[in-house]
């Protein structure tokens, strides 16, 4: 089953509204909610099939007009089922941010099951005055079933263009059958890799705070040419990753 979700946000009386929405199951969106801030619209993203089966493709198109503020919140992790027919599961996300627009995409969690193949490409076109916040966590598999890096392939790609400048071109490629993912320089002894991208020319973070390391949890921060930051986690402690992501989101929003 191929899912499609198109979301278009605009201003009405200086308030963000969901002006247009089109969906094709299994994808669907909630109505727009003003959860914590009347100037920020939250929309929950739903996937009714329970996951991607071999050959499925989900496509998201998100457009924000000037001055809009939106938070998108997936209701569940993206589960990727085995590719017994040899066809990969795919996800494509295209985002367009106009002047002064702000988009937060909360925790995109990907769980590739044993013998699955997943390809994801996210492309963002934004202005210098717009803001983009993206969270992503890649699981090693269904750990409670003993699946740890037993998927066939998992490729994710994030591409961010600010005007005509390619600010981010970041790909994670795992093929456990062809590479030793536990090798130093890949995953080492860690099970989870997570990323938070904060693309905002005005943001300032405490870089010392977001560089720390312990035996089962490492965090590092990279400045993106005065256009924001990448904070990346390698960890065996999933609750700690999520707690620190929440802390980082609060720091980013100034709350």
**From the helix content, strand content and strand pairing, which structural class follows?**
mainly beta
Helix-strand pattern: EEEEEEEEEEEEEEEEEH
What is the number of helices? Answer: 1
Roughly what percent helix? under 10%
Using only C-alpha atoms, the radius of gyration works out to 18 Å
Cα-to-Cα separation, first versus last residue: 40 Å
Strand tally, please? 17
Task: Write down the domain tally.
Answer: 1
- Which residue ranges are poorly predicted, with pLDDT under 50 across at least 5 consecutive positions? none
Largest sheet: 10 strands, mixed
**What percentage of amino acids are in beta strands?**
over 45%
Label the overall shape.
globular
**What average pLDDT do the residues reach?**
93
């Amino acid at each position: 089953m191929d899912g499609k979700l198109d979301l278009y946000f605009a201003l009405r009386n200086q308030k963000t509204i969901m002006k247009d929405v089109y969906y094709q199951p299994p994808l669907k969106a909630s109505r727009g909610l003003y959860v914590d801030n009347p100037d920020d619209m939250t929309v929950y993203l739903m996937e009714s099939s329970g996951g991607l089966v071999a050959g499925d493709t989900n496509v998201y198109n998100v457009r924000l007009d000037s001055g809009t503020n939106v938070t998108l919140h997936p209701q569940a992790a993206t589960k990727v089922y085995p590719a017994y027919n040899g066809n990969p599961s795919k996800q494509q996300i295209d985002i367009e941010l106009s002047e002064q627009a702000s988009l937060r995409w909360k925790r995109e969690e990907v769980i590739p099951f044993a013998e699955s193949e997943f390809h994801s490409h996210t492309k963002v076109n934004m202005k210098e005055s717009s803001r983009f916040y993206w969270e992503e966590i890649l699981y090693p598999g269904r750990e409670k079933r003993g699946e740890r890096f037993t998927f066939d392939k998992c490729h994710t790609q994030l591409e961010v263009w600010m005007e005509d400048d390619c600010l981010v071109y970041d790909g994670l490629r795992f093929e456990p059958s062809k590479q030793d993912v536990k090798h130093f320089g890949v995953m080492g002894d860690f099970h989870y890799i997570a990323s938070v991208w904060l693309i905002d020319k005005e943001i300032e973070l405490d870089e010392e705070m977001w560089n720390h390391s312990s035996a089962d949890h490492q965090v590092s921060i990279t400045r993106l040419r005065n256009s924001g930051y990448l904070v990346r986690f390698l960890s065996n402690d999933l609750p700690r990753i999520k707690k620190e992501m929440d802390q980082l989101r609060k720091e980013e929003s100034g709350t």
